[in-house]
Amino acid sequence: MKICVCVGSSCHLKGSYDIINLMKAALEKYGLTDTVDLSAAFCLGKCTHGVSIKVDDEIVTGLNRDNFDDIFAGSVLAKLGRKPE
Ligand code: FES
Predict the structure, then answer these.
(1) Does residue 82 sit within a domain?
(2) Residue 13 lies in a domain
(3) Number of domains in the chain
(4) In terms of residue numbers, what domain contains 46?
(5) Reduced to 3 states, what is the DSSP secondary structure of residue 79?
(6) In tens digits, what is the pLDDT along the chain, a chain of 85 residues?
(7) What's the CATH code of the domain at 17?
(8) 49: CA distance to ligand 1 center in Å?
(9) Which residue of 6, 14, 62, 66 has the fewest C-beta atoms within 10 A of its own C-beta?
(10) Residue 71 Cα to ligand 1 middle (Å)
């Protein structure tokens, strides 16, 4: 699985680096650092919707600290057949 976190200027202002840190911590927690290729992108074309990420071919928008766990569960863990702990 490939995950790209947008670090374009709009997403950056809305907290991309928080999301990258949360993503790294979540991948480590679930032992997914070898399964998931995490990288950064410079704009996913959804700038007005908050921090955007791309999970394989799916763009997910509006990530923040409050909804990160739910989005990680639905867009990452569920696709890997894992359940949130
Ligand atoms: S800056 Fe992130 S989608 Fe454009």
Answers:
(1) no
(2) yes
(3) 1
(4) 2-77
(5) helix
(6) 999 999 999 999 999 999 999 999 999 999 999 999 999 999 999 999 989 999 999 999 999 999 999 999 999 999 999 999 9
(7) 3.40.30.10
(8) 8
(9) 66
(10) 18
